[in-house]
Write a sequence for this structure.
């Protein structure tokens, strides 16, 4: 690995378990360079969401977490969270203010932006995702996909250096999913995306990490891992659609 | 159940109104907070049989409502779930206390009835005033105001999170009831045998969600301070607004306007 490139995330021997008995994550070692885009894949319950919570200090495990050269500790939490945004898997848990505008301004305002600066950031993020019409809508009265876009917008408005997205494309219609992919490809931030939408991962990430049995079982180029049918099937996954042979539709074949 | 939860949800979402703009919306949260607190204290301090003294106090929320552009109807509609409770609390007075307070010939006003009416009006006024505070300020603005008068941040965070938690609890209750009725067709309400697991689920689920939500707040820089809420400098208008309101409140509290006006005609 090229030493001159700045490391933004470094995990050393990270262990975590919810109940002290079964490990959810075991001996996780990971180095992420600035500007990298990484897809995190794995079956249901593999520990993707847990990993994201560990990275942002919502959960603490054994082992070392270092973000942009700063060790993750209680006293560095605030500084680290300022640089990192996490889109939660469940949008309902992400949105809590009366309107989307308030929700999006919440982060920037907390981090010291003035009302006007926050509004500029909010408008930029809304424009990027093309959801200006949701600006003053109440988040509790949005559709599932609208909430998804809204949740992503709240993080983009914070303009973090590192963005963690847990299932960003879930509940999005094809049009919005495509728009999201295009947006992700235009960003220059460091991106970590956990998803079962392997086609999206293939289009947006150059590197893929596969979690299985609490461990990182594969870490490499996206094309290599996502085209490895055997490996994927072992881990309850399946080739991305674009790698599957175009076959005539046949309901009886399986 | 579903009707009740939706009525409660509506009540909890009253701070959506705080996005509008009006003279009252534009006032500093702290100014409105002080006026509301003093008003409620003044209203509650009226003697239980002093209905005539209390009546002029109605003017203050009425004027504030019309200045804010929020219809009083909306307030009563949103409060519809609480109103029966108030009546229930006071309803015993006319039954228990039948001492005559005012003999009008045909109709005798008992002390019980008088105190019931006073109690009812007191609660209504306190509710109306709190409503206008939340509806024009938003819960976050109120919390910012509370912080400004140095209420400890842990207490203020608790108020904020409780407010959010109640809405969460209601959403979860609604979801659970829906899930239940979909699989128990033709049944009215939730069967007693399911109450235990139902309540347990409700508590666990809403606590989980509250935890996640709080996590999401912390991830976006929430540390118990309300920098994000509109809490601009207090300007001259705010001070004038507060002063006028306070003078009127204290005036109405000390001078019995009804009796004064009555005195002119008698
Ligand atoms: N709050 C919790 N308490 C106890 N166990 C939990 C909790 N949250 C998750 N788990 C367990 O930890 C494991 C990892 O969960 P996690 O949510 O990280 O999986 P995931 O990879 O995100 O799965 P999915 O693809 O379904 O989102 C699962 O076995 C799950 O049952
Ligand atoms: Mg997950």
């Amino acid at each position: 690995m090229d030493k001159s490139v700045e490391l933004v995330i470094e995990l050393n021997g990270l262990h975590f378990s919810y109940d002290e008995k079964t490990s959810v994550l075991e001996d996780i070692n990971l180095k992420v360079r600035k500007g990298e885009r990484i897809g995190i894949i794995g079956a249901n319950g593999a520990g993707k969401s847990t990993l994201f919570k560990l990275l942002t200090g919502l959960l603490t495990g054994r082992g070392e977490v270092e973000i942009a050269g700063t060790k993750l500790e209680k006293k560095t939490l605030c500084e680290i969270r300022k640089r990192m945004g996490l889109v939660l898997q469940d949008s309902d848990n992400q949105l809590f203010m009366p309107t989307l505008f308030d929700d999006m301004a919440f982060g920037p305002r907390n981090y010291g932006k003035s009302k006007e600066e926050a509004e500029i950031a909010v408008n930029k993020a809304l424009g990027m995702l093309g959801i200006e019409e949701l600006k003053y809508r109440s988040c509790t009265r949005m559709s599932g996909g609208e909430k998804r876009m809204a949740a992503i917008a709240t993080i983009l408005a914070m303009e973090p250096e590192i963005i963690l997205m847990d299932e960003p494309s879930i509940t999005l219609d094809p049009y919005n999913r495509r728009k999201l992919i295009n947006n992700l490809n235009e960003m220059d931030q460091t991106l970590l995306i956990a998803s079962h939408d392997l086609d999206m991962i293939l289009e947006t990430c150059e590197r893929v990490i596969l979690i299985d049995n609490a461990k990182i079982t594969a870490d490499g180029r996206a094309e290599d891992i996502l085209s490895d049918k055997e490996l994927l099937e072992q881990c309850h996954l399946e080739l991305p659609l674009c790698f599957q042979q175009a076959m005539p539709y046949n309901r009886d074949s399986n | 159940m579903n009707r009740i939860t939706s009525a409660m949800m509506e009540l909890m979402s009253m701070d959506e109104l705080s996005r509008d703009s009006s003279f009252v919306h534009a006032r500093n949260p702290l100014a409105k907070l002080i006026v509301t607190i003093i008003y409620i204290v003044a209203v509650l301090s009226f003697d239980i049989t002093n209905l005539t003294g209390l009546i002029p106090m109605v003017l203050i929320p009425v004027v504030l409502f019309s200045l804010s552009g929020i219809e009083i109807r909306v307030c009563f509609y949103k409060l519809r779930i609480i109103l029966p409770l108030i009546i229930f609390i006071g309803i015993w007075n006319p039954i228990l206390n039948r001492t005559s307070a005012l003999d009008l010939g045909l109709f005798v006003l008992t002390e019980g009835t008088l105190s019931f009416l006073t109690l009812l009006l007191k609660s209504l006024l306190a509710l109306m005033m709190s409503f206008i505070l939340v509806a024009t300020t938003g819960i976050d603005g109120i919390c910012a105001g509370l912080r400004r008068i140095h209420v400890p941040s842990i207490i203020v965070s608790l108020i904020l999170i409780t407010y959010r938690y109640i809405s969460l609890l209601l959403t979860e209750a609604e979801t659970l009831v829906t899930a239940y009725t979909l699989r128990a067709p033709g049944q009215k309400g939730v069967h007693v045998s399911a109450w235990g697991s139902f309540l347990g689920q409700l508590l666990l689920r809403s606590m989980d969600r509250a935890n996640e939500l709080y996590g999401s707040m912390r991830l976006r820089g929430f540390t118990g301070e309300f920098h994000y809420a509109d809490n601009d400098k207090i300007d001259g208008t705010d001070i004038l607004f507060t002063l006028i309101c306070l003078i009127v409140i204290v005036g109405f509290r000390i001078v019995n306007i009804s009796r004064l006006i009555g005195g002119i005609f008698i």
User: Anything to note?
Assistant: Chain A touches chain B through 32 residues (CB under 8 Å).
